[in-house]
Amino acid sequence: MSDEHLSASLAAGAEDGEGRWAFGTGFEDPLHGVDTTVPDGVDAGALAALCLALGDDALVGAQRLAQWTTDAPELEIELALANIGLDLLGQARLLYARTGQVDGTGRGEDDFAYWRDADAFRNVRLAELPRGDFAFSMARLLALSAWRLALFQRLAAAPDPVLAAIAAKGVKELAYHRQFAADWIVRLGDGTEESARRMQAGYDEAGPWLGELAADTSADALGGDAAGAAAELRQVWEETARAAGLTVGAYPAHSGAGRSGERTEHLAPLLEELQSVARAHPGAAW
């Protein structure tokens, strides 16, 4: 399955009368026309769980980025963050579609995004923390994008061709996300006394959550290599800190409980914001 085939399916027309909340309306299954049979030897349960978890990371992360709309320091930054959020929504959409196919339920992206409560989500908890200031948002974006990029580079060779294509498609997007965050961290860390203070605070707030990312082994069964991804994340985190003049502390590590369903108190209000319109008007279409 080619990347072009996967991308082209995003723009395919929906069946008459079908509307979706995600990405507006006029879209059908993003994997329409693609052979979605689970290959022999691939554990369907593990594949579904991984796609769901990675989709949740992307959806929740995108929603946090959306909170910068009309509130970013500059219009150019606002547009960049909106586009990064849209990249993540696109990844979530594909991953949710694959989950619904593999787990046998036939659920689509809207079912996963809008009709689950917080305790059913499996995202890493760093993604659901409050937006914070711009410095913290850049620290979080660096951590999540560097870690996700390392995973996607490995998952591009996954034994499931659909997951492999989704990962390969996301690599270029995530490389930009990582670079955008790193550039701003260096700019703020090497800026004024106040910007450096706030950037250090953002690093210190996000740093302990790197332990949860490093502890996540959910992708290993499909070629994700958690240890390798964790090493790359740590390298990017430390190199960016050095370039920005920041200190990387001996952070106490949070465990990887997000994947097993443990949530912070911040996810439920975020989902209420995300899901309110769809739940207020179930089945509606534009």
Describe what this molecule looks like in 3D.
- With about 290 residues, this protein is mainly alpha-helical.
- It is built from 10 helices and no strands.
- The two termini are about 30 Å apart.
Secondary structure layout plus pairing:
Elements: H1 3-10, H2 44-66, H3 75-102, H4 109-114, H5 134-155, H6 161-189, H7 193-206, H8 210-215, H9 226-244, H10 267-280
Helix pairs in contact: 2-3, 3-6, 5-6, 5-7, 5-9, 6-9
Shape call: globular
- The low-confidence parts are 1-27
Give the termini distance in whole angstroms. 32 Å
Could you state the oligomeric state of the chains shown?
A: single chain
Largest beta-sheet characterization: none
The secondary-structure class comes to: mainly alpha
Organism: Streptomyces albidoflavus
Pfam family, one: PaaA_PaaC
InterPro entries: Aromatic_CoA_ox/epox, Ferritin-like, Ferritin-like_SF, PaaA_PaaC, PaaC
Protein name: Phenylacetate-CoA oxygenase subunit PaaC
